[in-house]
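So, is this right?
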Amino acid sequence: MVLAKGNIRDLSSLALLQRQKGVEPSWGTTQGPMGKRLQQELMTLMMSGDKGISTFPESDDLFKWVGNIHGAAGTNPTLTAL
């Protein structure tokens, strides 16, 4: 299944489908306190429903994420990532 970047609902649906089939999502295999914390953050973000902001792991690596922030109509926001 190919997921469209920026569509966090698809990622949430995929995780739910995998769990229903008894399969832990591939990003759920990260061990240790850092991995557990990132999994909790991911679930919180997926369930928040904030419009205009989405983020999710880029691949199976929980330490590399893709985020999208949409500004107000007619604006061109400048973002700096450090």
